[in-house]
């Protein structure tokens, strides 16, 4: 299958390309920076430079690639700019969907998140609503304009190259004692399991899937374990401010039902250890 991978130079994309190539697929992958083209080539993809916020150029690029499927792995969190990331989810996704439609591509697989469900007291499944007005809600609605759409709601990434790896953003904050342990629940997923699920999703029925491990946990549970593994001070325990998100546990039963098995069933299996 010829796949147009939007976001080929990101943390997911750079791991997906070799996995997709090993599975026998032909990959055209995007980057916004010319200097990243050699990286994409070395990973096994045909690299193209395009900014998805440039709708005319994006439409030309997708049409020229003639893909059978568009895979959306775009984020903009290099500087932890949540507004830029929200714009990418809304405007960038709209442009990508429009480009796919114009090129006659009827199938898309897109990255979403599993920690944007509306508040509730039960474990969240794919049938539960997302927070009203969220950028990921807009992203998902846009993707579902296509005849065949698969949305993968990933948990919080951890593993090599993520913010939770030693030297990463979260690891640095924990080492400095800046991150308190709160009751906020986090559904995690190891970056290797993100890749395995995404490749397998090519063969799944269209739809929405939570890609999370088996043990979503509150910060009062996972953060002390994580800090200990880093050799960092034990975190202080704090309550949640009134405006803070109160996330829910999340079920991965639907993905398991189509055959996915996380290689790291719990964050306990993959967190750093001394």
From TrEMBL:
Domain NAD-dependent epimerase/dehydratase: 3-211
Matching InterPro entries: Epimerase_deHydtase (IPR001509), NAD(P)-bd_dom_sf (IPR036291), NAD(P)-dependent_oxidoreduct (IPR051783)
Pfam assignment, any one: Epimerase
Cited PANTHER family: NAD(P)-BINDING DOMAIN-CONTAINING PROTEIN-RELATED, PROTEIN YEEZ
Name used for this protein in its record: NAD(P)-dependent oxidoreductase
